[in-house]
Amino acid sequence: MEEVLKLKKATYHLWTFTISKMISSFGAQVYAFAISFYILQLTGSASNFALNLICSILPRTLVAPFAGYAADKYSRKMIVIVAQIATVLAIGGLLIVSYTAGLSLVAIYATTVILSLTSSFSGVTFSSSITGLVDEDRIQKAMSLNQMSISFAAIGSPALGGLLYGTVSMPVFLIMYIVASIIAVILESTMNFKLFAKRKEVIEGEQKESMLQNMKEGLRYLNNQPILKAIVWISLFVNFLFGAYLVGYSFILIEKLKMSSEHFGLTEGAFAVGMLLMSIYFSTRKEVKYPLLLSKRSIIIMGIIMGAVALPLMVDMSSVLTLSYYISIMFCLGAAMIITNTPMLVMMQKMVDDDYKGRVFSILETMSTALMPLGMILYGFLYDVLPAEAILIVSSLVLIIVVLILARPSVVRKAHPELKRINKDTSISVTASE
């Protein structure tokens, strides 16, 4: 009877988690859309736009190890709720500033830093909590529903942001984000983060590790997991090189091609539709058999798509054809990102012990974003002085080469030893037939 009740609670978690993520993501993405347009139209500089991205990424990179320590040491539910409340207060502060002194780049950058910090704590903690919220058989479903909720929000938010931008004031965007965050806090407060958790109980009188020792222990654990190490290094270089797309896409469409906010919103929505459809697919199918191999191929496809973003700068296209092209490109990129991330995250959820999840996921986040601020600065500068098409094509080629090296066949076979047996059996069959 108790097991049945736990499964029912897990089902409740699946949908509560999905809805809270969708609502909070909707508010965050409408806000991000409005702020991006505001900065680019105010300054017209890719460097200023890149600086806001740095303010979003650099604090996450620096604070992630502390977020991982906190997620493994303290109540995960409390961390998530406090982070959401801090988000509400930060946006509320920016709203007050907009009414009293007017929005400035300094106020926007400061708010972005605070949101980055709260996002790091809630993101790492939620990633660490999946196996505590749902049963093992539905981990892929939980990860896919999480991506679906983000995709639903991403479909509506750029379209709504594009329609509202220029017709309503910035405070309206801020109020939407505040309301969304408050609803998310209420939903998350009803969840039991310890339902399926397998964390060790603290023994009374046992000598406690210092924070530094605790973090070092997490690094030792990761160092003894060669597959996890490979994933971390792949994330490090891929995210750095993908800075070419993160800075360049908005800059090219808004500044170079002079695309309207409504059309830009449609391309962003197409990205979300691609994510959504692929998330639905993963939520209904069995677990992927060879996640690292699938992710490797998907990253190569993402590299090709990144280079393809430059095509309308080199080939004369009508506005309708340009819009259709970018909608198609973004749809494929959204699908490829889900194919890359979902199987790998499920694999990691099952590989990592519950007591180390916070630290391992925080190390992954730190390493995957460590070079991104440098990438933002570099690409922000390059887009202001060099042709955008050259930057994208060269970066995409380097990305593909790096992935082929870091996820070479020997690494993939180490992650999936059964591939050796399949290749061996195939070789024996061929030999016998000859």
From TrEMBL:
Pfam families: MFS_1. One of its GO terms (cellular component) is plasma membrane. It is found in: Cell membrane. The chain crosses the membrane at residues 12-39, 51-71, 78-100, 106-127, 148-166, 172-191, 230-252, 264-282, 294-313, 325-348, 360-382, 388-407. CDD domains: MFS_MefA_like (cd06173). Keywords: Cell membrane, Membrane, Transmembrane, Transmembrane helix, Transport. The keyword Protein transport does not apply. The keyword Membrane applies. SUPFAM superfamilies: MFS general substrate transporter (SSF103473). InterPro entries: MFS, MFS_trans_sf. One of its GO terms (molecular function) is transmembrane transporter activity. It is a multi-pass membrane protein. This is MFS transporter. It comes from Psychrobacillus glaciei.
